[in-house]
Amino acid sequence: MHQLTRLFSNHDHEGEEMRTESAERVFRSYETVAKEADQDLEVVEGKIPRDLRGVHYRNGSGRMERGGVWYGHPFDGDGMVSRFAYTEKGIHYRNRFVRTHWYLEEEKAGRILYRNFGTNIPGGVLKNLFRVRFKNAANTSVICHGGKLLALWEGGPPHLLDPETLATLGTYDFDGVLIDPDPLMRSLRGRELPFSAHPKVDPSSGVLYNFGMVLGLKPELKIYRVQKNGQMEPSIHVKLDALGFLHDFAWTPNWRLFLFGPLTFDVPRMLLGLKPPMACAQFASSRATQVILVPRNGSQPVWLHTSPGFVFHFCNAFEDGTDRIIADGLWYERFPEVARFEDLPRIGFGDFPRMMPTRFVLDLKNRTVKAEQISDVPGELPRIHPEYVGRPYRFFWCSATSSNWSGPYLSGVTKVDTETRTTVFRDFAPGLTSEPMFVPRPDSVREDDGWLLVTVYRSDEHRSDLLVLEAADLSTVCRARLPHHESPGFHGTWVPAGV
Asked: How far is CA 442 from the centre of its chain?
């Protein structure tokens, strides 16, 4: 039995009319951010906590169109990194587009020049025929590791940024380790191997783990290990049976967990330029979802199966001291299909699958997977206390939506207690909320003792606010006004002062 506490809820959303209105708000929030700011923010409510000191970086799509033509999917927009510096003087804000060479060329041309996951080059089949080197949008996440600030995109290498000015310094290949060793494949798919947007950091050692999905005649999963000083070790290779879509993974001290939903790809249509890759993905509801567990000790991977579905994001995973691994994620009963982005205001979201917090119990001895829903409130973009990554934990926080609503439209924030199976939900509708970044209070002893940093897009003002919430109860600590709007975006990172 799940218990829901609803705080400060404005209203519940019902009916097709609300779906379309929500889609219009989402669409407008993705209008191009015309201003790159560099200024202190005005705090209009509450006060900045005295011991909240550090920098919050976040990444997302800042431009979704070129020459009046919209990109076909939110994943395709040009990356824009925001920097919120919390000091004794206040909150200083700066935002900059990630100036990849793809961005600079399209900016100069004033039109779309490259294919991407959900976008074909305008002009028909011949413009897209056999084009398999996709634009690196550098828009999905941003991390700081080994003294380097990196903007991430799962299909290619990171981009190195200046941590103060956010100036783009070029792609980053970890001193050559990410360079594809195969000259033929380099010419086809690009110089560097992909480095996903969801690395995990071992809280005890500071070592970073990540993966990359490498396309080819025989797809490969490459698993990376980067030391605390930023030095990358040679990758581990796992051969895959077929092409799939993988966005995130779960990490424990002894295992790397990957969940492949039953997607099939119409590769000929993609190669011939008839459709972009995301439009060539089909969910095979008659097939099982594959769970791949890669052991730390180098032995052979363990393959398990569960019911058809899909997970974009894991909350956390841990070993329970027996032969079981516990993994929590946001579960879709099928892969979510998004119509052309520019059509959203006209057609709404339609029948979009809910993203439900779910616990997976993986029994390695009996080779079984048991799934159980742990909250009734749909959510996405989960965060936890960073010291509990890969360990037994209790709480996670999500950007979330009303329990009777379906769609990628997220208007609130939840706190989920995985032990008591209770959920606290605070609604900011009709606003749109970003990923809630959890920042632990210095010297705290409770897992939920800290703050959530979250932006809220205000559709009535076409502008965004920055909120600092108490993580324990989701109450407002302070609110600051941004000088312009930002899309809800994707992921970010927190860097404490002095690190």
From this structure: 26
